[in-house]
Amino acid sequence: MPRSTQERILSGFFWMGIAVLGYSVFPIFARGIYAEATLRPSDVAAWRFLLATPTLWLIVAFTQARRSPAVRTQNDARQPGRGPLMAMGALHGCASLPAFFALEHVAAGLYSILFYSYPTMVALLSLFLGERLPRAFWWALLGTTGGVLLALAPGLEVGAPGAELGQGIAFGGLLALLNAFLVACYFQFSRRILRDTPDVLRAVAWSFLGSLSVLATLALALGLRLPGGRDFALLLGLAWFSTVVALVARNYGIQRLGPPRAALVATAEPLVTLVLAAVLLAEFLVPTQLLGGALILGSVALLARDRQAASTVK
């Protein structure tokens, strides 16, 4: 392997490692904010984009300034329209709301495990849109379905001790799955809008304005609450590290590793969340939930490996 290729791959793993850590602590930050019981899910969602959007635009301005006028003009000519980008962002904003509601009811690790059913949902939507899928998809769908049932099993036991807690797990789990489904819809929508887009980061920055407009309007209608010092620090972590830094790092990682290999690396996110939730929040899952998580992550890895093999053949 040429040295330049090896360095590019190592760089890709570095950036994906940053992205994995950023997305892994997303539910940790949210659970930490809810410990104070001051902010509501609508507040957290709005503050996330209120803090993340201007930060992302500063990064875009910095990267734009480093490009030549000719490259900027060429990129502008190939950028999607602002209307579709902001519509994409509005969908992203709506998709994020169930996540913050879910994290009021379920542990960070369980949320992360259930959310990671979204790659299988993306593939399922592709099937309904007429794409041909490999045999591995059906195994992945079976594994994901079984994993979800096992992960939610403690919340589906009727009349069991701690029934109130079980109902919270079931309700929060369903919200996490709704979040995963809406994110899958967002991926299908964004894939069509961002196809052949030369400056993805700038396009996403425009979409963040769409997310912000939806969530800020909702929060203002409900009465946007101001965070205290501790909550504000956690919101900064959520907005800057788990949103902007993770997004930029993932883009760099995908560019260097390619989507299939990057997707395989990303399957570590729920595992990292489980470890951090145990250490920082003293949240632990029961064996059936861990088994369900293993089935879901195994299914995602199977899909990613199949796509990697297909891209290698091509």
Describe this structure in words.
With 314 residues, the chain is mainly α. It has one domain. Helices cover 81% and strands 0% of the residues. The chain has 14 helices and no strands. Helix 11 (229-257) runs antiparallel to helix 12 (259-266). Mean pLDDT is 85; it is low at 157-165 and 308-314.
Short summary:
The protein is an all-alpha fold and 314 residues long. It has helices spanning 3-24, 26-34, 41-65, 69-78, 82-102, 108-115, 118-128, 135-152, 163-193, 200-222, 229-257, 259-266, 269-281, 287-313.
SSE map:
Layout: H1 3-24, H2 26-34, H3 41-65, H4 69-78, H5 82-102, H6 108-115, H7 118-128, H8 135-152, H9 163-193, H10 200-222, H11 229-257, H12 259-266, H13 269-281, H14 287-313
Tell me the number of strands. Answer: 0
Mean pLDDT: 85
Number of structurally distinct domains = 1
What characteristic shape results from the CA principal axes? Answer: globular
* Rg of Cα set: 20 Å
Between the first and last Cα atoms, what is the distance in angstroms?
20 Å
Q: Strand pairing plus helix content: what structural class? A: mainly alpha
Q: Unreliable segments (pLDDT under 50, ≥5 consecutive)?
A: 157-165, 308-314
Biggest sheet layout = none
In N-to-C order, the SSE pattern is HHHHHHHHHHHHHH
Helix proportion of residues, in percent?
Answer: over 70%
Estimated share of beta-strand residues: under 5%
Q: Give me the number of helical elements.
A: 14
